[in-house]
Write a structure and sequence with these properties.
mainly alpha, 12 helices, Seed_Dev/Stress_Resp_Reg
Length: about 280
């Protein structure tokens, strides 16, 4: 699926025109859209957008490790030692990620759907270009054991809301998938290299609409992710928030470190990825 979209997007931008056999091969791969969207073997696009976000992401992960170290240092401190301020800085740190992600989405939605800066292990956790919101509740269960009944009820209600929203996002993504494989788009795709005049305009319009639909789904998923995290933090106490943020950072950095080890990636991590200590 990733390859198919790449071919479409490259052609729309005036790139290389593929053979009819290539189109048939990519068309058959549509069935893998949901389960193998970001295949490890899929060619990775080379662009300034990718390089720019990779540089940001590596720096962002380095700051993530620094925040984690500080949070762990004050985890067992009962006094008001600035942990609340640090927690807010950590949330702003996550906000920075979503701001950069929004920028690259406007340039190339495909890069966000199949992020080449992630390892294959990290991509296995992707749900609509990010973490699945319900993962937050698993982290809560694993890291916090002193919640009062009122918090439990609030989180139960939030989880129900998140689960319902997840289903709606998945349904919206399924609709986009159907559009990718629509007869109209396939007919135009099979004629790439032979389109003339109005057909070229129709193809470009179809691709523009498709990319906007993908962008809308990812934006909705990102909104849900941020909503769930902020609502959780609003329910937790200060100390519980610190524990939750530690668990979330440890999990992300562990997945990153394990993914790099599994893929044997030394070149993409540099000194930053080699310094992860999320265990």
């Amino acid at each position: 699926m990733c390859n198919f979209l790449k071919v479409l997007f490259r052609w729309e931008s005036g790139g290389v025109k593929e053979s009819k056999e290539d189109w048939k091969s990519e068309y058959l791969s549509l069935r893998l859209f949901g389960s193998n969207m970001c295949s490890r073997d899929a060619p990775r696009p080379s662009s300034s957008s990718r390089a720019s976000f990779l540089a940001f992401f590596e720096g962002w992960l380095g700051r993530q490790q620094a925040f984690l170290d500080e949070l762990i240092h004050m985890e067992d401190d009962d006094g008001d030692n600035g942990s609340e301020h640090l927690a807010q800085e950590m949330l702003s740190h996550y906000g920075d990620y979503y701001e950069e992600k929004a920028k690259i989405m406007r340039e190339d939605i495909f890069l966000v759907l199949c992020p080449p800066w992630l390892t294959s292990f990290e991509r296995a956790f992707l749900w609509v270009a990010g973490f699945k919101p319900s993962l937050v509740f698993r982290l809560l269960e694993a890291s916090i054991s002193d919640m009062i009944s009122e918090q439990v009820e609030q989180l139960k209600e939030l989880k129900s809301t998140a689960t319902r929203e997840e289903r709606e996002v998945e349904e919206e993504m399924a609709t986009v998938q159907e559009r990718v494989g629509s007869p109209e788009l396939m007919d135009l795709a099979r004629q790439v290299g032979q389109l003339v005049n109005g057909q070229v305009s129709d193809f470009n319009d179809a691709m523009k609409d498709l990319k906007q639909a993908m962008t809308n789904v990812v934006q909705r998923a990102d909104h849900l992710r941020r909503f769930v995290v902020l609502r959780v933090v609003g329910i937790l106490s200060r100390k519980q928030t610190i524990k939750f943020l530690i668990a979330a950072a440890k999990f992300q950095l562990w997945v990153r470190a394990w993914g790099l080890q599994k893929d044997g990636q030394g070149e993409s991590g540099g000194s930053t990825t080699n310094s992860y200590q999320a265990n």
